[in-house]
Amino acid sequence: MRFIYGPLMLVLISAIPTTVFAKRVVENWEVTYVTSNRGLDQPPKRGVSVNHKFPLPVVHATKGDTLVLNIFNSLNETTTMHSHGLFQRNTTYYDGAAMTTECSITPGTSFSYEIPLEQAGTYWIHGHSHSQNFDGLRTPLIIHDPKDPYKSDGEYVVAVEDWWPVTFDTTLAALLDVTGQSNPFAQPPNLLVNGHPDAPRFDFIPGQTYRIRLISMMSLPLWEFAIDGHELEIIEVDGVNTKPKKVNVVRLAPAQRVSVLVKAKESCDSNYSYHVTMFGNFLPPIPGVFPSRVDGLVAYSSDAPLAETVGEIPSEPFDEMGIESLHGPILKADRGLYFNATSGFLPDGTNWESFNLVTYRDPDVPSVFTALTDSINLNPISYGPQTNAHVLQLNEVIEMLFWSATQLSHPLHLHGHVFQIVEKGFINDTMGALTTRVAKDKFPLQRDTVLVNSGEYVVVRFKADNPGVWLMHCHFDWHMALGLNMVFVEAPKEMMDVVKVPQSVIDQCKRQGIETKGNVVGNMAYNYDGAPNLPHLLHDAPAVLASAA
């Protein structure tokens, strides 16, 4: 098997053996600071990477392997690693959600994640502490399936990320500035493809079929992918195989992944361009800066001319309601939950994000340990008022209504699961004329991250069949840091039988003086003194700010 990464990432599918033996895929990563401009025309900034260089190493494995991430933290702050999209069945403590599923890795110490790979598909790994994803701690994770129903002659990975000229801490300070003098968009992001400013070249052989894995490692913008003169056939979304769906363009929000098959033309008469376009409604257009586009080459022959791009490059929303997963009839809901992804103000005038006007704060004790504390683990308040926890029973089907009335969209990600997308509509459409629902005889699209556009709602369903503690949050890094998070505590009674926390996880907490039992503050009874406890957010800015304005 041959893998190439950097300007080009190609897997020769024909080289994958038909008989595959499970193995340990070991990655030894020192998490370090790297000052770099990533090859862009901008001043260098301090980023977070692995082994002192960008881009990070790409991880390839096969379904049935065990992924071992040996992490040494050389930063001056804590870190964790989240393998995005993996269910972590019975290993919720390796999910990487700091103070939810584990204590963080402290500076100067090491920690190992050992994750059985029971899924196949397109995933990624990123930092889940201190918004280190924003500053570059992210890389693709490709899990191959020897029995994949979709065959191809080769494959390419297109991992797209935004690289801002400033660090996350700088943008966060601007977001929390109550004077109105700071602009977090003053220095917009640049675009990187597979860690570089230039798009890789695709070499096509006439008549062959290629799989292209699209991975959005963005922290904020959306992006689109299209190839001149070629159709894209969607076959996988967020690690779940789909029924084939032909499109001209694929749009992705942060954290989403899509695999497409592309059939090469039968002749070498021309080469073609493909296009990666970064955009978003959060920033007015800046000519030559934003939106931005990188074009790559689909090469059939070094002697062939480049076919001209005819007309406008296609652009359209991702049609989630028009794509079916390969398996899975629509679930029948047992109960429903409502989540209004909205923002509001604290009395000091700072603006925060929230679900239902409850802005998230980390508990003093990781929620996984509270869930494993008998006698208090069934009561949501045990996890703290700012954790916004919901306790689920084993195998109940939860329907969630996501609601977004704010100016920005929200890519909402659920750890430990995929959910079925069963309905979409517009908040102000009181008659339901524009509502779309999945027919009862269809298999709803399943994914782990759904984009809820401004002014829209989305209804999803999932089955609580994975005992553990799972974070749900907006995958805009800004919104996550500003509190758009909540926690599902799934089947805590069953957790006590199947979740056995390794000593290495407990030791990380002991190093930091963090309790590994009890409620939000480590008490064994219903005493929450000292727990993070903020007032519900205000819809409008406090009067003192309004009068100052």
UniProtKB/TrEMBL annotation:
This is Ferroxidase fet3. It comes from Kickxella alabastrina.
